[in-house]
Design brief:
single chain, mainly beta, 1 helix, globular
């Protein structure tokens, strides 16, 4: 069974930084692309950043230049120059074949 466990969320002032971590169980991590999504209240879940097993990255336009996704023994999302509109629950994600897996989510709150 695939398990994704996120950590690192919290409350930060606008302009501050946070680093999210996601640990994936077993061999999934080495064989799969990993992504970070977020969902703000009343809004649809959206892709924030994604990294393939080979290290190719993708960023949503709204976070380009501020967020950095990376992977070593876990997948990380370094978030700099945070804005109030970044407030959301952030979820780690991976897909294995036709199955999609999600972590439990970690809350990020940015105060103005």
């Amino acid at each position: 069974q695939v398990q994704l466990v996120e950590s690192g969320g919290g409350l930060v002032q606008a302009g501050g930084s946070l680093r999210l971590s996601c640990v994936a169980s077993g061999k999934i991590f080495r064989r799969s692309a990993m992504g970070w999504y977020r969902q703000a209240p009343g809004k649809q879940r959206e892709l924030v950043a994604r990294i393939t097993k080979d290290g190719t990255t993708y960023y949503a336009e709204s976070v380009q230049g501020r967020f950095t996704i990376s992977r070593e023994n876990a997948v990380y999302l370094q978030m700099n120059n945070l804005k109030p509109e970044d407030t959301a629950v952030y979820y780690c994600n991976t897909e294995v074949g036709t199955l999609t897996y999600w972590g439990q989510g970690t809350q990020v709150t940015v105060s103005s």
